[in-house]
């Protein structure tokens, strides 16, 4: 193998992927071999065995040794013999200084970051241990608590709006637009909310900004539990949950007369899997309610929650919506009495079917018209989550006639 081939092999064959510092070392090694090709007697004058100098491995290790000493505070017997060689050595030393400093600073920063994170975790675990010991918590229970804390501290959680403080500095109009882009598709995926928003171009922005927010639950967290008052409605963006009814209930039209009995249904009632794009606790919008079951997170669950109180406050400026929705709320409450998973949702088609035809048409006709042409409501047109199929005029007339006769209902 020639000296040129040895130089290329030493420079690129062994050290082509070692980052900034490794790249500098390879180039130093390559250039050192180039100098050897031009003037071999100067740099090699200090070798003890001139026969070994022409041996491949001696050449390779000598070049590598010299290149590494230019990047580190090391030394070797090969030293510059003239001004050109000394100048080249100085250039290599300066490059090595910057490369070494950059590498050390990056490693130091990462080590400090890791130490800071580990320090916080160790302090929390130490405080937890002191708490459990001080209050004489039994050892098996204490170990379960420690294990849960360790597992939960390692879970990666998605970012929430509150985790980004810079968003609070945005102008109000831009924050409203941002909220609508995040939550608009969620609201419009429900038939009733979609029908509401068809009537007012600003209602979708108002509801999204004032009443909706993001929430995350870790594995084995309870989203809601029996006997707790329902104050929020949930939409599952990602993750899986499990619902089980635990309390028998009898629902009266007047929420103040609700009767709760304590008989457990854990063995009799099947568990229901709640997955992405499902709704839960919708009954909180339509009547005062206390949960009769438990909704448990099986994974890290990303939810959109609707604060019912703020939701109704946003609707207060639209009294006609509140007026024609009373019949829907009444039908929903009546159907909930015989629904084993009342804490989740009652199918919209069932609620429409339980309403008088004239009241049902207040929802059905606007919904039907929205699929017959371009919408006047720009917000609904922009944020509707799927492409709407257009109906022909003859199909629209036939479907409208069936709706008015009560033969069918339509939903999203």
List strands and helices in order, with pairings.
Elements lengths: L2 H11 L5 H20 L1 H4 L6 H4 L2 H16 L11 H52 L4 H16 L17 H17 L2 H8 L4 H9 E6 L4 E3 L7 E7 L2 E5 L2 E3 L8 E3 L10 E3 L4 E2 L2 H4 L6 E5 L3 E7 H8 L3 H18 L11 H7 L2 H13 L8 H6 L9 H12 L8
Antiparallel strand pairs: 1-10, 2-9, 3-8, 3-10, 4-7, 4-9, 5-6
Helix pairs in contact: 1-2, 1-5, 2-5, 2-6, 6-7, 8-10, 9-15, 10-12, 13-14, 15-17
Which properties best describe this structure?
11% strand; alpha+beta; elongated; 17 helices; 4-stranded antiparallel beta sheet
Give a concise summary:
With 412 residues, this protein is α+β, with helices and mostly antiparallel strands. The chain has helices at residues 3-13, 19-38, 40-43, 50-53, 56-71, 83-134, 139-154, 172-188, 191-198, 203-211, 283-286, 308-315, 319-336, 348-354, 357-369, 378-383, 393-404; strands at 212-217, 222-224, 232-238, 241-245, 248-250, 259-261, 272-274, 279-280, 293-297, 301-307.
Please explain how this structure is put together.
There is one protein chain. This protein is an alpha+beta fold and 412 residues long. Helix content is 55%, strand content 11%. It contains 17 helices and 10 strands. It has helices spanning 3-13, 19-38, 40-43, 50-53, 56-71, 83-134, 139-154, 172-188, 191-198, 203-211, 283-286, 308-315, 319-336, 348-354, 357-369, 378-383, 393-404, and strands at residues 212-217, 222-224, 232-238, 241-245, 248-250, 259-261, 272-274, 279-280, 293-297, 301-307. The chain has a 4-stranded antiparallel sheet. A 4-stranded antiparallel sheet has the order 2-9-4-7, with no helix packed on it. β5 (248-250) and β6 (259-261) form a beta hairpin. Residues 1-22, 251-255 and 257-265 have low confidence and may be disordered.
């Amino acid at each position: 193998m020639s000296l040129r081939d040895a130089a290329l092999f030493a420079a690129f064959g062994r050290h082509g992927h070692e980052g900034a510092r490794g790249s500098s070392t390879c180039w130093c090694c390559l250039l050192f071999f180039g100098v050897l090709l031009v003037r071999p007697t100067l740099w090699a004058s200090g070798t003890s065995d001139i026969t070994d100098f022409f041996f491949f491995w001696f050449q390779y290790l000598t070049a590598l040794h010299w290149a590494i000493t230019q990047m580190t505070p090391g030394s070797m017997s090969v030293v510059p013999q003239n001004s050109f060689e000394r100048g080249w050595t100085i250039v290599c030393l300066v490059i090595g200084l910057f490369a070494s400093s950059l590498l050390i600073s990056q490693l130091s920063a990462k080590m400090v970051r890791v130490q800071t994170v580990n320090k916080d975790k160790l302090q929390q675990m130490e405080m937890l241990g002191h708490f459990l010991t001080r209050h004489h918590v039994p050892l098996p229970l204490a170990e379960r608590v420690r294990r849960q804390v360790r597992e939960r501290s390692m879970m990666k959680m998605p970012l929430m709006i509150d985790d980004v403080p810079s968003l609070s500095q945005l102008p109000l109009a831009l924050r409203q637009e941002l909220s609508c882009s995040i939550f608009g598709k969620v609201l419009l995926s429900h038939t009733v909310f979609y029908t509401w928003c068809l009537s007012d171009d600003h209602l979708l922005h108002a509801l999204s900004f004032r009443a909706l927010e993001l929430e995350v639950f870790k594995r084995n967290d309870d989203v809601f539990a029996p006997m707790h008052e329902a104050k929020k409605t949930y939409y599952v963006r990602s993750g899986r949950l499990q619902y089980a009814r635990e309390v028998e209930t009898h629902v009266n039209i007047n929420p103040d007369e609700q009767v709760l009995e304590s008989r457990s249904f854990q063995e009799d009632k099947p568990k229901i899997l709640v997955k992405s794009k499902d709704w839960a606790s919708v009954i909180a919008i339509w009547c005062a309610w206390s949960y009769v079951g438990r909704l448990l997170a099986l994974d890290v669950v990303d939810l959109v929650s609707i604060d019912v109180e703020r939701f109704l406050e946003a609707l207060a400026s639209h009294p006609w919506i509140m007026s024609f929705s009373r019949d829907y709320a009444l039908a929903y409450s009546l159907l909930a009495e015989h629904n084993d998973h009342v804490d989740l949702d009652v199918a919209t088609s069932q609620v429409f079917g339980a309403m008088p035809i004239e009241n049902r048409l207040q929802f059905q006709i606007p919904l039907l018209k929205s699929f017959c042409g371009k919408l006047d409501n720009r917000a609904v047109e922009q944020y509707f989550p799927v492409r709407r199929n257009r109906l022909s005029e003859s199909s629209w007339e036939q479907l409208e006639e069936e709706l008015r006769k009560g033969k069918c209902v339509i939903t999203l």
